[in-house]
Structure formats: structure tokens, C-alpha cells
Amino acid sequence: MRNSIPVKYLLLADILLATGMSAYWFITGLSPIATAAVFIAIFFAGCPLPYVLAGIFPIYHAAKLAAKQEIQLKSSKALHELQYIDTLVLNKNGTITEGHPYISDIVPEGMSQSSLLALAASAERDSVHPIGKTLYNAAISRRLRLQRISACNEIPGYGVEAIVNGKTVRVGRLKWLKEEDIDISAELLTKNDQLAYHGKMPVFVSNGKYARGIIALEDAIPKNITAAIHLLQKFGLRVVMLTGDSQRTASAIQKATDIDDARADLSPMEKAREIQLMRARGASIAMAGSLGTDQLAFAEADLAIKLIPQKDTEPPRNRVEVIDPEEDDETQKEDAPPPPSETALQPDIVLQGGLHALIPAIKLARSARNIIHQNRMISYLAWLLLLPPAMGLLTVFGGPFLNPDIAFGGFLVASILTLLNTFRIQ
User: Fold this and answer.
1) Would you list the DSSP string of 352-393?
2) How far apart are CA 426 and CA 418, in angstroms?
3) Is residue 347 one of the residues assigned to a domain?
4) Quick check: is 25 in a domain?
5) Under a CB-based contact definition with an 8 Å cutoff, are residues 269 and 262 in contact?
6) Are residues 244 and 278 in the same domain?
7) Is the pLDDT of residue 348 over 50?
């Protein structure tokens, strides 16, 4: 545990102190029985148990309170780690935004809007990413005719490429298409900047070597998200967003929510590297959100917090919910709980209710930290009051040695006070 002395060293120091002082007094002429009494008195006066309980009791009690508040902990160590977090990293989709993307704009080039959407949906037919599902469901709801694909490859953090009618169709980020030397017109690049400036997510669609248009998606920001971020900042947390969206889109989100920093155009590997760099600079990092494709980034954080949004009572606005009847069986399979995976990251904390649910968890952890500090002050005070007379320092002024019974009683009182103080955690 942070800021704590290992128990074995405290116990060893206590035994060595008791042995050394009792040997000293024996050499100076103290009787064997009196020497044994000195050893026992010093041992109980310096016993590290109250110090150990000072940290164990609050964490155990706080973990029980967390369970009552529906805060799921992988272990009590997660709550202890949460006390020292100073940087909160968030992914965007479903954490800062509602997590229900919908199509806001379709900008075709050299084809109709319907043809562009059908082309993108054909490539995204088997996608598990929310953006891909949104494009596919939108095409099905408009009863567009999708083309068969002969091959498909989903590249995390970039997009999807598929072979449609012998040509490679790519649906994804502008940066990726540029890396693939796709020819993109100046008009589409200008439109991309305009859409991103308003916080939308431009998704480029290319067919062969040419970009055929942009499908922009929008994911609404909940009205209360800014208030939650302000509260987290009042706890002294620096809030950082990592996203694969463009810097313009990220800047628009940052302006709307008042987060401290927004880093964009990041692949899953680059997000993990950003967290590594922040930790190298001394930051204690919790990453919160939906694990999804950000497993690498979550694994690099000191604490992985899974946020489960509250279920909506009605479908989100503009979201297409129509599913292709032919895909119904596959959809049911997707909705079923995934089988346990040995490689899947297990979050340290699971919170129901989105970002707002993190606030009571941090309050509980900070309350436990304050009580731990108070409990340790009790143990320090016990050592200060009991050890000097147990070691015989009062004999210099004509006083007695500390009676072993009194040393044991002081040790017991310190332990009980530590326990009682623990119940002040709220």
C-alpha cells in the first residue's frame, strides 16, 4: 500500500528494540524477571498491529459501503488505489457522449447519397463497432440494396476494408485513407473540416483509389456531463479525453464539456502509449469508460473503471433500430453475454450510471484515505506515549518502568480507537 511501511520491517524493528533495550538493562544489573518485563512492555508498546489495522479497517469497511452503493470492486485494493488517482482518462463514445451515434450528414461525390450509404453499409455488414452498426442499420431501414462482399478486414482504430465487386472499399478515418494513398478531393477535405468543427465524426468512404464521400455521425453529449466533469475537477483530478476522432472534433467536444485536455487521431496502440507517457511523468491514472476496443489503454492505466450507462426508457433520438431479418439470429448472438475470455481485461471497478457514478466512488475512497490518516496518527500517538516509559527513559528522572499490563492496555486501546474511528467513513 502507498505511503505505508511494510509490516515485516515494523515487527522486526519492534523485536530488535525490545531485545536491545532489555539486554542493556540486564547488563546494567536488572534482574532477569524485570528484564523480561521490560522486553514484554516494549514489545506491546511498539507492536505494529494498531498501525496495520489503521489501513485495513477503513478499506474493508469502505468496500462494504461500496457494495451497498452498487460499486463493484475487483478487490479492496482497487478502492485503495482510487484514493491516489490524480488524472482521469476518458474515452469519448458512451462516456462523454451518449453512445448512440446517428447519421447527421451524407456528402457524396460522384454518386447519390443512397449509393454512398449502401456502399459503406455493405463493407460494414459484419462490423461489431458502433459506427459500423449504425451505418448498416441506417441502410437497412431505408431498404437499400447492399452488395455482397468477397473479403472483409476490420482494422481497430482505423476502419473497415472490404472487397466489393472486385474493388477495395474502405470506410474509416481520413488519416487512414491518406496513408493508403486514396485520392481525396479538396471539396471533401473542406467539408471534413466543417463537420469536425461542429463536433461531428466524419467517416470517409472510398471505392478503389478514390474517395466517394463522407458520412458524418453525431453522438449527443448529455446535458449533465459537464457538471460531472466540473465535480471531478474539484476533487483535484485532471480530466483527459483520448479519441480516434480528428483534432477538430476533439476540440469541439473539449470546448463543450470543459475537459482539461483532448488528444485525438489516436489508434488503440497510440492511446496506450499516451497513458504510458503520462505515467512516466508521475501521474496516477484511472481510465474510465466502456472497455470496447480500448483494452490496451485500459491495461496501461493504474486503475481500469468500467462505466455502464443507465438504460434509456425510450430509444435515443434519430437512432435507427431496424435490423435486417436475415441478420436477426446473429444479432441475438451479439446481444448474448460473451463467453469468458482469459485474455479479456477485467476492470478494477464497475459503476452503473455513467460518469456521474464515479463521483460517490471517489468520495468514498477519499473519505477512507482521511480516516486511514487519522488512524495512523492514533498509532503514532500510542507509540509516542508508550515506548519511552517502556524503554525506561523515565528512570532517568526517578520514575518506574512501564508495567507490561499497562503497555498491553495501551496497545489494546489504540486498536479499539482505530476500529471505532473507521465507522466514521461515509
Assistant:
1) ESGGGGHHHHHHHHHHHHHHHHHHHHHHHHHHHHHHHHHHTG
2) 16
3) no
4) yes
5) no
6) yes
7) yes
